Amino acid sequence: MAQLTVSDVLASIRAGKSLSKAELSGIDLSEVCLDRVDCSAAYLRQARLNHASCQGANFSKANLMLAELSESCWVEGQLTQAVLTQARLDNVNLQRAVAVAAQFYGAQLDYLNASHACLERADFREASGPQARFKYANLVEAWLDGANFSQSSFEGARLSRSGWQQATLSGVSFVMADLAQANLTAAILVGANLSEARALSACFQEADLTAATLRSTQLDWADFWNAVLMQADLRQASLYGATLEFANLSGANLSGADLRNANLENAQLDGVCLDGCQVVGALFTNVTGLSLAQRQWLKRHGALNVTR
To answer: For the chain, what is the mean pLDDT?
Structure first.
């Protein structure tokens, strides 16, 4: 297919014609209005759409690899299976967009607004998006391994079975998010807020949750093997059956938490607060840092293998 020029594109838009499968690589459509235009399966590698308006437009299966989309608007746009590998999407508005299985690998997403967007099974591996917004978005089974979303918000987002291995998530908000069965192995969650999140059976192995807030968080059967939870706020958290083997909980506040049947074998508990915890059936084999009074209290309330 012949390469279209900007004039060709504008003429097609005025005539209401489809740009599906059009050859548009390298084209500069900055500040152009593409609202509700059909660009499905179009080839836009290294295209420039900075400040463009693409509201309700269909870019499903389009190739936007290395494209520049900064400050563009894609509200309610269609990007299902689109390829945006290493594209620039700084300050892009993706609110309520549908981008199922879209590829954002290595993309630049600073200040992206994808609130209420459907990003199920999308690939965000190695992407960088500090201070991005994904409030109430659907990222079920999405891949975010190695990504940097520091200071971003995933408040109320659907994140079940998503992958975040070795992701940088310092200061991120997961308040009221659904992280059930999510994999956050070795993720950096320093100062993150997971209050009232649902993280049943989530994996936090070797993750750094220093000074994180997990108040009233549902963490039943979650795996915190060798994780760092120093100074973490776990008040009223539910950790029923959770694995906390070799975890560092020094200075953590677990007052009112449910630790029934949890495994804290070899955990470091210097300065931990256990006031009002439920500990029936919890294993405290070889833990360190507990005071004599704490050990006696644990034994009286049904904890197991509490060392002298």
So the answer is: 98
